[in-house]
Amino acid sequence: MKYTDLGLVNTREMFADAIARKYAVPAFNFYNMETLNAVLNAARMTHSPVILAVSESALKYMGSDMLMGMIMGANISPDEKMALHLDHGTSFESCVRAIELGFSSVMIDASKLPFDENVEITRRVVEFAHQHNVSVEAELGILSGIEDEITFGDKASYTNPDDVEKFVRATGIDSLAIAIGTSHGAYKRRRDDEELRFDILADVTSRLPDFPLVLHGASNIPQKLITIINKFGGKLSGARGIDVSQLRRATNMNICKINVDSDLRLGFIAATRRALAENPQNFNPREFLSAATTTMSQICADEIRDIMGSENKL
Question: Could you say which architecture CATH assigns to the domain 3-308?
Fold first, then answer.
């Protein structure tokens, strides 16, 4: 299926506008009807472009037919500037499959491979994707942390600015994810005063002026959600995210896409735990699922306004 038949767009125009007007397009991961509706509601309420991100494990969980059925049922208009993005595609084949399903953007993540192998597999994905007018993201550097069975890493390595120009030229990618101190999961920093490596970001930006750069593992991890989760039986001691001021600073330095996953997971769990604890006689899933959707939608809207700066950017 062609993504244009679903009202979707690729990311090229939205990234160019984001760089010119110093904001970031939010890429919110979803994995069921509730998370998808939360993202859609927030984007439409704030008039923000948005990237609907799906990991390989989320695609496996939902099933391709169910996923694409939900996208079709969302009644997306091209004027809404929404892209459907494969997050952390692990192979050429998985990216091809996503494009054939109707994704308008794919990420090929070969960052754990040697540089030349990363270049080769990324170049192959770009060659195929561009034949279908699909945009491609790749990654240099490795993020630590765990989000699912695909996005995990025991070791982190910062992006080497000396590699970026060669990599972009050799692959033809449309955007580049870089590693400057973010990480996957809910435990992104050991201390509140830890800062991202803005020196690396500045160096990369100087070498790739006006080229779209991406931050993965950039959830804020709102402490109010941690408090609610722990109050109602959770155990998330020490969870810390990336400070809002640092993320806003990054959007002024060609970071035009910020990925958020953990914040929505935390919102889902916090709302569900509270709803079940406060109404223990409930056995209607729609009640706590509605509470979870409302909470996640508010999280998305708040981050669109306070972090991305993408409100009213359609």
Answer: Alpha-Beta Barrel (3.20)
